[in-house]
Design a protein that fits this description.
Blueprint: H1 3-13, H2 16-34, H3 45-57, H4 63-70, H5 83-90, H6 92-99
Helix pairs in contact: 2-3, 3-4, 3-5
């Protein structure tokens, strides 16, 4: 990447609308990868946890491993795999309010 291209990219990253759009497309891709052919118009809390966890940690880990992590005992290493996704659920009401423009 040239210095000018790096400069242009850094300017884009300063624009919240650009960032939200990039994240939205990435989340959509994660949803399609994780749940191909399924109706995902209304995600369950478990699906949100899985997508959030894959957003944070990558897609290498199997979905079942993340699902097992959700119910793993508190404080165990295994539970860390779903921590980011579980935090999204904890903040779900506030996130929805922001998305509504409130």
């Amino acid at each position: 990447m040239t210095s000018f291209e790096q400069f242009q990219l850094s300017n884009c990253l300063l624009d919240n609308r650009f960032n939200i759009r990039v994240v939205a497309f990435h989340l959509r891709d994660l949803i399609m990868l994780s749940y191909p052919g399924k109706d995902t118009a209304h995600l369950t809390d478990e699906q949100i946890i899985i997508i959030g966890s894959r957003y944070n940690r990558g897609t290498q880990r199997e979905i079942q491993s993340i699902t097992d992590s959700i119910s793993a005992p508190v404080g165990t290493k295994q539970r860390e795999y779903s921590e980011y996704g579980r935090r999204i659920i904890e903040k779900k009401t506030a996130i929805m309010e922001i998305m509504r423009g409130g």
